[in-house]
Design brief:
210 residues, alpha/beta, Ribosomal Protein L4, Chain: A, six-stranded mixed sheet, 6 strands, 33% helix, elongated
Length: 210
């Protein structure tokens, strides 16, 4: 059974708790994780890089000098890639880098990533991540008491976790995502995953609904 440390709303450790086995104790499929992360990164690329080929650069098509008798190398066009201001040979052209991943593969990859984090005791649960007001100082104080914040941390927020995003917005090691938006890439790149009880309940409910 996968376990996680449970902290109070003030950041003090309370006890260890069991995590849902159908989310944090599944079979790890590295192939699905690789395919999903690769597709995610590819889909972030704009694919707008463009260089001009020899048919697109401005210049005359006239032969610069005659073929023989000048003592210089043969040249047929000023737009040749070997000339300064000539066209780019095999240059970049706009293209679509997007890759499609099946829904079941994405789901399996996310469960595999969450299971891997649970196995390394990198999943932490807080009683609440709601703040009365968006205040970074309060956020850092609670995380310091919990012993978190020394590495990249992913926070999963539910609708009840008010002001969490604004409180952690300026913290370089913190990434805040809604539970319904979490993806395999963000889970894999994070060193620790922190969520409130409400976020864990929402994650469990969404998994049960699928």
């Amino acid at each position: 059974m996968a376990k996680a440390k449970l902290y109070g709303a003030d950041g003090m450790f309370q006890q260890e708790m069991d995590l849902p086995a159908d989310i944090f104790d599944t079979e790890i499929n590295e192939a699905c994780v690789y395919q999903t992360v690769k597709a995610y990164l590819a889909n972030q690329r704009q694919g707008t890089a463009k260089t001009k080929g020899r048919s697109e650069v401005s210049g005359s098509g006239t032969k610069p000098w005659k073929q023989k008798g000048t003592g210089r190398a043969r040249a047929g066009s000023k737009m040749s890639p070997v000339w300064v201001r000539g066209g780019k040979a095999h240059g970049a052209v706009p293209r679509d880098y997007r890759e499609k991943v099946n829904k079941k593969v994405r789901a399996k990859a996310l469960l595999s990533a969450l299971t891997a984090k649970a196995q390394t005791q990198s999943v932490h649960v807080m009683e609440s991540l709601a703040f009365d007001a968006p205040k970074t100082k309060s956020f850092l104080g609670i995380m310091s008491k919990a012993g978190l914040g020394d590495s990249k941390t992913l926070y999963l927020a539910s609708a009840e976790d008010r002001n969490l995003l604004q409180s952690a917005n300026n913290v370089p090691w913190a990434t805040v995502m809604r539970v319904q938006d979490v993806n395999t890439y963000q889970v894999v790149r994070a060193d620790d995953i922190v969520m409130s009880k409400a976020a864990l309940a929402q994650l469990t409910a969404e998994r049960s609904a699928k």
